[in-house]
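Re: your question about GAF domain-containing protein

S., sorry for the slow reply, the queue was backed up all week. Below is exactly what I fed in.
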Amino acid sequence: MSSYDLLDRQLTALLDSGDWLTNAAQTSAFIMQEVPRLNWVGFYLQRQPRMLSLGPFQGKPACHPIPFDKGVCGAAARSRQTQRVDDVHAVADHIACDSASRSELVVPVLDKDGELWGVLDLDSPDQGRFSEDDQAGIERLVATFRRLSGLSDA
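Result:
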């Protein structure tokens, strides 16, 4: 059993069925506390076309808003695919909210209709922090968040 199996069970028990705002706040805090070597975790929401707005998060004050054509969060929003970046300083259009961040994992969050609801963004001060296992585990936690927040049919 991976550590993400346990984290998924804990997150399932923590979240309040159907309340996306509370669940987003709880998910951010939970991941920040339980996943080591992170300096920022949070949601960016698509509240207007091709723009991400800051949502519930844990960490230093963050950049707001983020257009779809900028940074790792924008790339995840545009492509609707997880972005795992070992060295954010090598990304030409990286948005440096915190100069201490070195690597980033951003998972798109889709609603029931397959539309982009937002993204979950994890930053680390460690270069190369996120592995394939981390990506799969965080994607699983996002699936749990979606299910328990009423964003998926499952």
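Residues 132-148 form the longest helix (17 residues). The first strand starts at residue 40 and ends at 48.

Happy to talk it through on Thursday.
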